[in-house]
Design brief:
single chain, 352 residues, alpha+beta, 5-stranded antiparallel β-sheet, 5-stranded mixed β-sheet, 11 helices, 21% strand
Length: 352
């Protein structure tokens, strides 16, 4: 096993720490899969870990995607890999030995080494396969997140678009300066909502889009909507999933304040809570039964913005983990508060 040579060395030679560090580094090298840019680095680390003369990572086309050490003769490697792929088992052709890479139950490639112990090569291949499985899961998660974002963009409310244009049109004659400002706000809102930037934006960017949206809505309410926006400066540069806050705010306006007679108020606030970034969207609208809030997050909600909030909730859980979904606090006639809590910093969540 990989630890056998470690045990044969001196107890204080640091081999255990070196092995553990190499395992972490190999996993990082293979973040982009077997054909990613880190494969060559992974092969070099595996060679050192196995103390082999050479190491080859090969794909299912029997091509070496990464080689560390002396390249094997093409015919020699082809025969070695053919045996591995034919039987999905290890093949020993001195001085080379090769073992299959089995990822999620499927043959995905091979690991070959020169002058290496087959008993150590097998767990090394399992390590590589586990890293490749992690990489595949990350790619799948990214595809799901992107698909959910495309779905959310496709659901930009026609109701809002129609009303915003109607408000702007109504003010062209009575208040042309305000109409011009609102039209610019509307253009900014659309530009941000359909931006082709990455999957993440800063809290500051999201907040600016939300303020633009709320100004358009306030004009539609004839300025009867009271707006309060409070954000602690410390969280403004925090990266969060793109279009997370706006759907919550839209839900508050459309389903909280629109059905309420008379004026209404909505507040958007954010602050740090230890390692967490907390964002709250609260309205004093009609509210709902707690059971309906649970149904909304499950993807239902009887027409009260269930799809948009469920989409945001699912994206948060996909990116940060199951404990980081939305929290809805509400009561019939008592308004609604939606709370987002996410880590301020998380690997892979960046606007760069």
């Amino acid at each position: 096993m990989l630890g056998d040579r470690m045990r044969r060395g001196r107890p204080d030679d640091g081999r255990t720490a070196a092995v553990l560090a190499a395992v972490q580094e190999i996993d990082a090298d293979l973040r982009d899969g077997l054909t990613g840019r880190g494969a060559a680095s992974a092969a070099r680390r595996l060679r050192r870990l196995l103390r082999a003369g050479a190491v080859v990572l090969a794909d299912l086309d029997a091509r070496p995607v990464a080689v560390a050490g002396q390249d094997p003769a093409p015919d020699e490697l082809a025969a070695l890999l053919a045996g591995v792929y034919e039987h999905a088992g290890s093949v020993h052709r001195p001085p080379w030995v090769a073992v299959p890479l089995i990822v999620a139950g499927e043959l995905s490639g091979a690991l070959a080494a020169r002058d290496a112990d087959e008993a150590e090569l097998t767990p090394a291949a399992a390590l590589v396969a586990r890293s490749l499985d992690h990489a595949a899961l990350r790619r799948a998660r990214a595809r799901i997140t992107q698909a959910e974002l495309r779905t959310l963009r496709a659901q930009i409310s026609p109701h809002f678009l129609h009303n915003a244009l109607a408000v702007i049109g109504a003010r062209i004659r009575t208040d042309p300066d305000r109409a011009r400002t609102l039209l610019n706000d509307f253009a900014d809102y659309l530009r941000y909502s359909f931006s082709t930037q990455g999957d993440y934006a800063t809290v500051a960017d999201e907040l600016q889009a939300v303020q633009t949206y709320l100004e358009l809505q306030r004009a539609r309410f004839d300025d009867r909507m009271e707006l309060t926006v409070r954000m602690a400066p410390e969280i403004l540069p925090v990266a969060i999933p793109f279009l997370v806050i706006q759907p919550i705010v839209e839900n508050a306006v459309r389903h909280g304040l629109e059905p309420k007679p008379g004026p209404g108020a909505i507040s958007v606030s954010g602050f740090g809570e230890g390692p967490l970034c907390v964002i709250e969207v609260e309205d004093d609208g009609v509210g709902m039964e707690p059971e309906q809030a649970r149904a909304i997050l499950a993807g239902g909600g009887g027409g009260r913005g269930g799809v948009g909030l469920a989409n945001v909730d699912q994206r948060l859980r996909t990116v940060y983990g199951p404990e980081y979904g939305l929290v809805i606090e509400t009561a019939r006639g008592g308004g609604t508060k939606v709370v987002i809590r996410v880590p301020k910093f998380m690997r892979g969540v960046t606007t760069r």
